Amino acid sequence: MISVHLCNDKTLWDEYIVDNDGHPMQLWGWGEVKASHGWKAERVFVQDGEVIVGAAQLLTRPLPSMLKGITYIPRGPVTDMPTREVVLQALADYTKVSIGSVALTIEPDWTAIVAPSGWHSSQNHILIPRTLILDLTKTEDQLLAVMNKKTRQYIRKSSNDGVTIKRIKSHDAIGECLKIYHQTAERAGFALHDDQYYYDIASELGDFSPIFAAYSGDRMVAFLWPIISGSTLFELYGGMNDEGQQLRANYALKWQVIKTMKEWGIERYDMNGLLNDGVSTFKQSFADHEDLLVGTYDYPLSPLYPLWKKGLPLAKKIIRTMKR
Question: The domain 131-291 belongs to what CATH superfamily?
Answer without folding.
Answer: Gcn5-related N-acetyltransferase (GNAT) (3.40.630.30)
